[in-house]
């Protein structure tokens, strides 16, 4: 009996040890993936490599320890590299801390007022277009450091300069070696997951870094390697001079841009990571607060902005992590490595890190999503493509805003599917409207009304029984037309549905008219078709407030 009790008591402890071992193993895997990415993102952002490591440490120890999402991993993101580089170029590295600090504070406020789920309301086409718009410039900007060269500047300049870049690489043996290391890195990133057995569990980026270090150490090889200083020396706490920059509208714009993009990328990543595992789901508002806390700390240290990152998060899930321990520990390993083995970092060729980022850019671009979207929805394809092109041509914020506007216009157009027909029967000019009558269909409605008025018939019938939504603009136009034509002595019949939800009976204008009759024949059935053959089932009012036609004292019928 006592032995059975002992075995039952020991079982949970054994399971706990096994789980902790898995968490530690997963944290080491995430660390190996994160290390080259942290450094590569910093280099691509135009800031010292140490700042990328500091942001990685903050992403692990601060965001990783907070509640919100259990398995997604945060750190400096390749998706923000172009934005950070542009900001640093315009405002300087010293202002980066203030921008990241206030972006973090704003994220905390957004989380506290429970706007975290608001980011889920963004069109998927805009999200994919945003990622592609980040990935395309990132790929071409990193081609140049992949050959130890400097990128010309803006995205389209980088793209246009590729032929000259290729010619320079071929002409320079050292550049050719550097570019070869970058190409090897890219190829490994694509094919390493197909490696046999346990070998594929080693991150491809780490393998590429090892190959790069070995090649760079060979005699006669002179490729640029990473220059990493002391982490403590890299910390740059913002001072009064930097905080005074908050009076600059450009700084405020940068803060808003960082907040929106970093929050969107983190919460989009959370949704993606939630689909990778069956554990606890992300609490979006809490996660937004956690991301804000991370960026607040990163800003105080003058480091790069922190977001959730798909590559590190997927590695964490695939390594078998189940709790926040693994993502927190990975930050500790980053800190220990940078403090104890900084000389190892100085052996890494820059071209290898550039190759890692070219692969990241390709994954963000996801070229296969474009034909897939074309087949599924060409309207969404147009929004996705427009977002990508505008981001590439201008900047991230402008592209996202244009994409959001295009998505709203597309949704509005699709919601405004209204049929407007005008024809003449005997002495009556008829206008029939069905569907969603919104201001976007106002030009067609006005045209039909003008044609009815110009038909020269003594009676006009406006049939709106098939309308499911009538906005203020269209209703005002119809009311003004009715009043105008009745003022001219014409008989106007207005058939209106009940759009208030108060009942099934269609409503007429609220005017008391003697002898107005509800027709008892030829009543349209609206159950399926907005313009069906006449039938007895629908209920509606026909009301004519105009004076009787000359020589006709009877009430009109619904014929």
Q: Which key phrases capture this entry?
A:
559 residues; alpha/beta; four-stranded mixed β-sheet; disordered C terminus
Topology:
Blueprint: H1 2-44, H2 49-63, E1 73-75, H3 81-91, H4 93-112, H5 124-143, H6 155-160, H7 162-171, H8 173-191, H9 204-216, H10 231-234, H11 240-244, H12 249-274, H13 284-300, E2 307-309, H14 310-318, H15 325-340, H16 342-345, H17 350-365, H18 369-376, H19 378-393, H20 396-415, E3 418-425, E4 428-437, H21 442-454, E5 459-470, H22 472-487, E6 491-495
Parallel strand pairs: 4-5, 5-6
Antiparallel strand pairs: 1-2, 3-4
Helix pairs in contact: 1-2, 1-9, 1-14, 1-15, 1-17, 2-13, 2-15, 3-4, 4-12, 4-13, 5-17, 5-19, 5-20, 7-8, 8-9, 8-17, 9-17, 12-13, 18-19, 19-20, 21-22
Structure description:
The protein is an alpha/beta fold. The chain is built from 22 helices and six strands. The chain has helices at residues 2-44, 49-63, 81-91, 93-112, 124-143, 155-160, 162-171, 173-191, 204-216, 231-234, 240-244, 249-274, 284-300, 310-318, 325-340, 342-345, 350-365, 369-376, 378-393, 396-415, 442-454, 472-487; strands at 73-75, 307-309, 418-425, 428-437, 459-470, 491-495. The protein has a four-stranded mixed β-sheet, covered by helices on one side. Helix 1 (2-44) packs across helix 17 and helix 5 (124-143) runs parallel beside helix 19. It is elongated, with a radius of gyration of 33 Å. The chain starts with a helix and ends in a 64-residue tail after the last strand.
Spans of at least 5 consecutive residues with low confidence: 4-18, 502-559
Structural class: alpha/beta
Query: How is the quaternary structure best described?
Result: single chain
- Please give the share of residues in helix: 55-70%
Beta-strand content bin: 5-15%
Write down the overall geometry.
Answer: elongated
Average pLDDT: 82
Across the major sheet, the strand order is 3-4-5-6
Helical stretch count?
A: 22
Q: What separation lies between the terminal Cα atoms?
A: 93 Å
């Amino acid at each position: 009996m006592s032995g059975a009790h002992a075995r039952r008591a020991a079982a949970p402890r054994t399971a706990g040890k096994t789980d902790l071992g898995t968490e530690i193993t997963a944290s080491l895997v995430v660390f190996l993936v994160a290390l080259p990415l942290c450094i590569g993102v910093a280099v691509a952002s135009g800031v010292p490599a140490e700042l990328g490591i500091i942001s990685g440490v903050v992403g692990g120890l601060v965001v990783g320890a907070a509640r919100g999402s259990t398995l997604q991993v945060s750190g400096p993101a390749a998706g923000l590299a172009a934005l950070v580089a542009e900001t640093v170029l315009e405002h300087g590295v010293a202002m980066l801390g203030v921008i990241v600090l206030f972006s973090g504070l704003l994220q905390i406020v957004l989380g506290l007022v429970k706007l975290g789920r608001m980011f889920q309301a963004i069109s998927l086409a805009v999200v994919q277009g945003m990622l592609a718009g980040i990935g395309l410039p990132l790929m071409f900007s990193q081609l140049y450091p992949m050959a130890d060269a400097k990128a010309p500047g803006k995205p389209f300049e980088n793209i246009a300069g590729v032929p000259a870049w290729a010619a320079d690489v071929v002409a320079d043996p050292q550049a050719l070696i550097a570019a070869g290391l970058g190409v090897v890195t890219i190829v490994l990133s694509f094919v390493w997951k197909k490696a046999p057995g346990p070998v594929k569990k080693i991150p491809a980026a780490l393998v590429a870094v090892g190959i790069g270090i070995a090649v760079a150490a060979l005699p006669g090889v002179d490729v640029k390697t990473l220059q990493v200083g002391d982490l403590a020396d890299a910390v740059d706490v913002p001072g009064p001079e930097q905080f005074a920059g908050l009076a600059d509208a450009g700084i405020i714009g940068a803060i808003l841009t960082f907040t929106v993009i970093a929050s969107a990328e983190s919460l989009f990543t959370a949704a993606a990571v939630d689909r990778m595992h069956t554990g606890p789901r992300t609490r979006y508002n809490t996660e937004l607060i956690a991301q804000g806390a991370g960026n607040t700390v990163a800003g105080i240290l003058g480091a790069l902005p922190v977001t959730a990152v798909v590559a590190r998060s997927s590695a964490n899930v695939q390594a078998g992590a189940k709790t926040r321990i693994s993502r927190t520990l990975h930050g500790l390993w980053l800190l220990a490595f940078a403090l104890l083995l900084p000389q190892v970092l100085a052996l890494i060729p820059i071209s290898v890190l550039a190759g890692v980022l070219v692969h990241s850019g390709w994954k963000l671009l996801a070229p296969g999503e474009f034909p897939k979207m074309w087949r599924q929805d060409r309207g969404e394809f147009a929004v996705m493509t427009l977002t990508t092109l505008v981001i590439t041509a201008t900047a991230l914020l402008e592209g996202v805003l244009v994409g959001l506007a295009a998505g709203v216009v597309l949704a509005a157009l699709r919601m405004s599917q209204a049929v407007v027909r005008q024809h003449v029967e005997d002495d009556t000019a008829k206008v029939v409207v069905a569907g969603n009558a919104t201001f976007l269909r106002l030009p067609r409605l006005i045209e039909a009304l003008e044609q009815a008025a110009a038909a020269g018939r003594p009676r006009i019938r406006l049939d709106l029984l098939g309308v499911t939504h009538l906005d203020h603009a269209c209703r005002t136009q119809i009311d003004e037309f009715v009043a105008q034509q009745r003022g001219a002595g014409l008989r106007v019949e207005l058939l209106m549905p009940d759009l208030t939800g108060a009942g099934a009976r269609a409503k007429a204008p609220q005017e008391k008219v003697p002898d107005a009759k509800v027709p008892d024949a030829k009543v349209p059935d609206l159950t399926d078709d907005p313009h069906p053959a006449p039938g007895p089932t629908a209920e509606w009012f026909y009301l004519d407030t105009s004076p009787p036609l000359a020589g006709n004292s009877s009430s009109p019928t619904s014929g």
